[in-house]
Design a protein that fits this description.
The chain is mostly helical and 170 residues long. It has five helices and no strands.
């Protein structure tokens, strides 16, 4: 790694090796943790609870190896050059603030109002933050999504979500 890539510096090559090292370490950590999982009494057959994490960890180590070899051979990542991306633009902090407010309101209201209403507020707030200005239609869709997702979790998955002030109605 004596020469830098065209338009790049030697430090960029080192940072890409750092990404490969991080991926390899993460893969090894996942494999070790999967091997340390206790035996499950309900597991049947040859596939236990550690099978998927071992496969994912192994794939992470393999990808890390391929990335390291590519970087050592002179390969470098290209900067994003999409046609629909404005690289000189700044962040839209107003949108971020509205999204944060929608998520915080959901977290604060879920116990008192229940998931169907706080979820509807979350869905409507996200639609508003991302630019939709069809207030009535968005509110109707948000209510359907809030109540529908509550029923999906409670009846379909058997998970208890707070119903809040709609206790006895839903």
């Amino acid at each position: 790694m004596s020469a830098a890539a065209p338009g790049g510096t030697q430090e960029q090559g080192r940072s890409e090796l750092g990404v490969a090292l991080f991926l390899g370490a993460l893969g090894i950590l996942v494999i070790v943790q999967a091997l340390l999982l206790p035996e499950s009494r309900i597991a049947r057959g040859p596939v236990g609870p550690g099978a998927v994490p071992i496969v994912v960890g192994s794939l992470l180590v393999i990808v890390a190896g391929f990335l390291a070899v590519d970087v050592w051979r002179g390969g470098r990542g290209e900067p994003e050059g999409g046609e629909d991306i404005e690289l000189t633009g700044s962040s839209d902090w107003k949108t971020v603030a509205i999204l944060v407010a929608a998520f915080l309101s959901n977290a604060l209201l879920i116990e008192s109002l229940g998931w169907p209403i706080s979820g509807a507020i979350l869905f409507w707030g996200c639609a508003f933050a991302l630019g939709s200005r069809h207030y009535v239609r968005d509110a109707a869709i948000a209510i359907v999504m809030g109540v529908g997702s509550w029923y999906l979790f409670v009846l379909g998955l058997g998970t208890s979500l707070p119903v809040g002030i709609l206790e006895g109605i839903l």
